[in-house]
Amino acid sequence: MDHAAETQRTDLMTITRHVLNGQSQHPEAHSDFTILLSHIVLGCKFICNAVKKAGLAKLIGLVGETNVQGEEQKKLDVLSNEVFVKALISSRLTCILVSEENEEAIIVESLKRGRYCVVFDPLDGSSNIDCGVSVGTIFGIYMVKDKENPTVDDVLQSGKNMLAAGYCMHGSSCTLVLSTGNGVNGFTLDPSIGEFILTHPNIKVPKKGKIYSINEGNAKYWDEPTAKYVEKCKFPEDGSSPKSLRYIGSMVADVHRTLLYGGIFLYPADKKSPKGKLRVLYEVFPMSYLMEQAGGQGITGKQRALELLPKTIHDRSPIFLGSYDDIEEIKALYASAEETKA
Ligand code: FDP
Description:
The protein is an alpha+beta fold.
């Protein structure tokens, strides 16, 4: 896509305008959703700005231990979480919040309650911050069953019930990728006007890709299907060229590349992490939802990831995300491993 031409456009398609347009085509959709989204966007803008300044932390005391006034400063992930939680509660549209940073789900006080549940990881990949690697904010949105009596069960739903999901990548630019169940669109923050502008309309993941993405340092612990799959990537038996390996170690950045260029992102269960590493509610579900909406797939190895039913809010799962055909290959390897066991 021609970004230069896109930025020169005078008819700016902001994220709010885009979502409102979508609603006018579906009158049953509620304007509350646009308001909720604008609060999520605010949180993302704040985090993006804070991440950009992170390198200056030691100089000007933005984050870290103690600033020049002797005040205790908050770590970036803690600060990001606080801002996100407050932005969501102040929308008066949320009921239950689940954050990677909070052990328990937050039940919003009744006077400020609305009908949405939001699950999120405010700063995913935060172990990469000090070396300037792209990190991200991931979120998923559900509807509560009864806002007068919210319970944790309202968020322990299958990922198929999500109303929307997205992530914001805080990298060389700030990119917000969103699906409300009708395809995937990408918006880039124009810092001069403080608006996210549609730059990647209707993202479709290529049907097959040339890249695989996995932490190869865990090879010793892998199960057979993962080991076989990676071997096939390096030494294809069908005469095709080997795939390239790209692994950033920051989920949003690795998934963003997979969404745009195709290929596969793998975080399997292994002997070290028998349940996998990534979290079902705010990593596996939103990313699987986006991948499916873009024409790709998200599986746990044995099943469609969105069909999982989490038992606790911080459950983990193995996850394979990416191009349709690449996922079919790893699915077949898991199916044949199951058959051999039976
Ligand atoms: P991080 O630990 O830096 O927060 O779930 C967290 C995550 O990063 C993902 O963003 C990333 O894909 C994954 O962990 C990386 O894990 P490994 O270091 O085990 O490869």
